[in-house]
Amino acid sequence: MGAGQIALVDVTFFGDERIGKLVGPSASYMADKAEFGSSRIKRWFGRDWNSPP
Fold first, then answer.
1. Exposure check for the chain: N or C terminus, fewer CB within 10 A?
2. Is residue 45 within 8 Å of 38, Cβ to Cβ?
């Protein structure tokens, strides 16, 4: 993450062909990243987490 932007990395490890794709960077992905992080904290540790501003 830099300059308020984040990129997405989409990688397939299974099957005969390994494929990787980089999408972004974009400021619009920041909300997705915050949701991903907070949902993992909730699932793994059973507590809420709020991302920094």
1. C
2. no
What are residue 19's DSSP bridge partners? 12
pLDDT digits over 1-53, tens only?
578 888 888 899 988 889 999 988 888 888 888 888 888 888 899 888 765 55
DSSP labels, the chain:
-BTTBEEEEEEE-SSSS-EEEEEEEEGGGHHHHHHHHHHHHHHHHSS------
38 neighbors 49 (Cβ within 8 angstroms): yes
CB 38 within 8 A of CB 48: yes
Q: Which pTM value belongs to this model?
A: 0.55
The DSSP bridge partners found for residue 2 are: 5
